[in-house]
Amino acid sequence: MSPTVVYDRFGELLAFMNVFALLFVFFLCLKGIYFPSSTDSGKTGGGFIFDYYWGTELYPRVLGFDVKVFTNCRFGMTIWPLLVCIYALKSYELHGFVDSMFVTTVLQLAYITKFFSWEAGYMQTIDIIVDRAGYYICWGCLCWLPALYPIVSQYLVSHPVRLGMSLTSIILAVGLASILANYLADLQRQQVRSADGQCLVWGRKPDIIRAKYKIEGGSEKESILLASGWWGLSRHFHYVPEILLSFFWTVTTGFENLLPYTYVLVLVILLVHRSFRDENKCSRKYGRYWQDYCDRVPPYLTAVRAFTAVHVAQT
Ligand SMILES: NC(=O)C1=CN([C@@H]2O[C@H](COP(=O)(O)OP(=O)(O)OC[C@H]3O[C@@H](n4cnc5c(N)ncnc54)[C@H](OP(=O)(O)O)[C@@H]3O)[C@@H](O)[C@H]2O)C=CC1
Ligand SMILES: CC(C)CCC[C@@H](C)[C@H]1CC[C@H]2C3=CC=C4C[C@@H](O)CC[C@]4(C)[C@H]3CC[C@]12C
């Protein structure tokens, strides 16, 4: 049997995953209340619907597996590249070599490879340390991610687009450059923190804030907030190349249909919402140190506005 049967019967597979995920989230909801694996567990206080949506446990374990690492990394981030390859194979069976499919496949696989090379960093993000294992994260990674994230590849199977050599090269180059910028920004923060600020950022001594915060139990800890390099351009600057890279792998579909742009549009909403959530989290965690960082570095919408204003003034 060819793996492209997954493309042919994707609707049925997704329906099955939905039933499984909805039941699994229900199981997790009860488990967090009655048999928690960790201390951050129990009802949210918002009623059953909200418990189900948000989850009742931060780090549930089932049969020795960490549920969120499994749903987010081992399932979601693994099924995505598999689907991208299956859709590319289906397209090859139907139309032979199609350059738009080639570009989107290379860009998505490069992006996913980037994710796995930085996976340890993902363990420190709000998905893992703030969001409980409920409908939002678990159903999201089991159903929403496989349906939405590879949508461009799925669309190109039935709507092949011929880009030509020049467009193929340009989109590949700017797409890979955006992936690199996003990767370097994530890496820069990790390196500065692990070197305790004793390293160079863009050839200079980094501009850092030694931010103190209290952990449960009241003892004090210290962390580094980087205010130069990528992290000095704007707060959450790495979201800009994140949006651009997804736009580049989508623009391969042309402008005839809005459907393949769903992922980019949803991503913009998700990242804007996420930057507010993260700022809230950092402000509560670091207090006046975070305020100091905000005084030095503008939010990215301000940075984008300032960037556009300079360009408009120049032209
Ligand atoms: N495709 C998709 O669906 C999505 C992709 N992403 C991508 O995933 C990656 C991770 O993003 P995300 O999960 O949002 O988390 P971030 O990488 O933005 O990390 C946020 C955390 O970084 C720390 N931090 C914030 N500012 C600074 C600073 N100036 N210096 C040092 N540390 C700082 C804080 O954590 P601490 O408590 O450690 O200080 C903060 O909570 C990015 O590449 C992003 O583009 C993100 C969301 C969705
Ligand atoms: C239920 C839905 C409305 C929302 C579902 C949300 C989740 C599926 C997604 C929320 C945040 C997403 C991610 C965050 C960071 C990531 C790092 C990046 O390098 C790869 C993608 C991802 C793991 C991404 C995956 C989907 C979310 C968990």
UniProtKB/TrEMBL annotation:
Keyword NADP: yes
Signal peptide: none
Pathway: Steroid biosynthesis; cholesterol biosynthesis
Endoplasmic reticulum in keyword set: yes
Name the record gives this protein: 7-dehydrocholesterol reductase
Record family assignment: Belongs to the ERG4/ERG24 family.
Membrane topology note: Multi-pass membrane protein
Localization per record: Endoplasmic reticulum membrane
Positions of transmembrane segments: 12-34, 96-113, 133-152, 164-185
Organism lineage: Eukaryota, Metazoa, Spiralia, Lophotrochozoa, Mollusca
Annotated source species: Mya arenaria
UniProt-listed Enzyme Commission number(s): 1.3.1.21
Keyword set, alphabetical order: Cholesterol biosynthesis, Cholesterol metabolism, Endoplasmic reticulum, Lipid biosynthesis, Lipid metabolism, Membrane, NADP, Oxidoreductase, Steroid biosynthesis, Steroid metabolism, Sterol biosynthesis, Sterol metabolism, Transmembrane, Transmembrane helix
Entry superkingdom: Eukaryota
